[in-house]
TrEMBL record:
Keywords carried by this UniProt record: Cell membrane, Membrane, Transmembrane, Transmembrane helix
PANTHER family the UniProt entry points to: UPF0702 TRANSMEMBRANE PROTEIN YCAP
Pfam families: DUF421 (PF04239)
Membrane topology: Multi-pass membrane protein
Highest rank taxon of the organism: Bacteria
Domain YetF C-terminal: from-to ranges: 102-173
Protein name in UniProt: Membrane protein
Keyword Transmembrane: yes
Lineage of the organism: Bacteria, Pseudomonadati, Myxococcota, Polyangia, Polyangiales
Compartments (UniProt record): Cell membrane
InterPro entries on file: DUF421 (IPR007353), UPF0702_alpha/beta_dom_sf (IPR023090)
Entry's family note: Belongs to the UPF0702 family.
Chain ranges passing through the membrane: 20-42, 54-73, 79-99
Amino acid sequence: MKEEEIVPWDVKRILLGQTPAAFLLEILVRTVVVYLCLLVIVRLLGKRMSGQITILEMGVMLSLGAIVSVPVLAHNRGIVVGVLLLVAIMALHHGLSWWSMRSPKVEMLSQGRATVLARDGVMLLDELAGAALSREQLFAVLRGKGVEQLGQVRRVYLEGCGLFSVLRAPKPQPGLAVLRPVDHDLLEHDRSRIVCVTCGNTSEQASRGEACSRCGRREWTAAVIGRKKTDGGARKEQSQ
């Protein structure tokens, strides 16, 4: 459209552009057909496409979104071309999945690998930085898993698909609280041990002024054993 052909505040142009009004009905038909085809393709791609997706599956989903927009909105493009592209993406995805099952290198490149974020109650700060995660984000994940302090954790993994896996320690040790500071009064502390506020490394009370052997920081707090027992719980134990 040339500049002299533009009429300011032309409602028809603003709402419909240069598209004839009759094309709106065709867009509706195109949308229904392409949407149904997309549902079939996603169903054939497998259950993973509707769950937590990997890097490979993310690429497929973005490609699907780019493909379906053209046959729906472009009046000079046919639907068949878009459907063929959807089928091609499905074939490519299945081909890469088949190749990944037979090649660990391809699997690592396409699916990603798990990252250890915490080991034996201590956070791995370099791995957290590499994953662009803060300590508070990790604490939020642990709270969602019912963890109250890091000593309850044996391993925390960030899986290749973005999920967090938390392996609990068979015998919890004193550790750094993951609850918000306003809720620390709910926890029972071990005054004989201190824990690094930065990484969660535990040490003896006598070394409070020393630098942490893991991260080099000097900020310490009392280690947490677990949740305080309520009066009701104490009375129940005494009755047993």
